[in-house]
């Protein structure tokens, strides 16, 4: 497995196609290109995945944890989309493993509807980046690289 896993959750495949005033005009492909460029600049390899299914996100975190335990993966950048606000299962998955997971949100969830203010993931995340647009993914990757001692 590559050294960084970028994991995007439900509906993030729709980025750039609707609600540009909230999420910007850039697509998921643009997000993934930004992540690849950032990782390469820092000397890391990266895998980008997107799933609309909670169980697939959990499986990906388990696989990342195994790679981290084997010393090949430094961390996960996770935008869990709306599962952020609902998923005890994702909370448990992250809590149960040692791999650092950085929670990212493109929008400032705290400036939006009240139901977006609570995150089940924040208490078990290694760090949180919120409201910087897609640049938040770059910041999260830089944070993980620095945490791993490589940048
Ligand atoms: O701000 C973020 O990154 C979010 O994680 C995006 C989620 C939302 O449920 C979270 O509260 C905050 C939504 C995913 C993207 O949904 C789209 C829907 C239509 C068009 C474009 C994106």
Outline of the structure:
By secondary structure, the protein is α/β, with parallel strands linked by helices. Helices cover 36% and strands 16% of the residues.
What labels describe this entry?
16% strand; alpha/beta; single chain; five-stranded parallel sheet; 36% helix; Rossmann fold
Name the bound molecules: ligand CA2
Measured between the Cα atoms of the first and last residue, the distance is 20 Å
Strand content: 15-25%
Number of strands: 5
Q: Could you give the order of strands across the largest sheet? A: 2-1-3-4-5
At the fourth level of CATH, the homologous superfamily is Dehydroquinase, class II
- Which bin fits the share of residues in helices? 25-40%
* CATH class group: Alpha Beta
Sheet having the most strands: 5 strands, parallel
What topology emerges from the helices and strands here?
Layout: E1 4-8, H1 20-23, H2 28-41, E2 46-50, H3 54-69, E3 75-79, H4 88-95, E4 101-105, E5 127-130, H5 135-147
Parallel strand pairs: 1-2, 1-3, 3-4, 4-5
Helix pairs in contact: 2-5, 3-4
The chain binds ligand CA2.
The site of ligand CA2 has 17 residues, from loops.
């Amino acid at each position: 497995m590559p050294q960084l896993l970028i994991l995007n959750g439900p509906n993030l495949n729709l980025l750039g196609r609707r609600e540009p005033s909230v999420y910007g005009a850039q697509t998921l492909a643009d997000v993934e290109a930004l992540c690849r460029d950032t990782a390469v600049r820092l000397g890391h390899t990266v895998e980008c995945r997107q799933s609309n299914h909670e169980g697939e996100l959990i499986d990906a975190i388990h696989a990342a944890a195994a790679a981290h335990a084997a010393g090949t993966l430094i961390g996960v950048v996770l935008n869990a989309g709306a599962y952020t606000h609902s998923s005890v299962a994702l909370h448990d998955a992250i809590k149960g493993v040692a791999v650092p997971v950085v929670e990212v949100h493109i929008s400032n969830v705290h400036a939006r509807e009240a139901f977006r203010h609570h995150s089940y993931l924040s208490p078990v995340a290694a760090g949180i980046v919120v409201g910087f647009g897609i640049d938040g993914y770059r910041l999260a990757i830089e944070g993980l690289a620095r945490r791993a001692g490589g940048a």
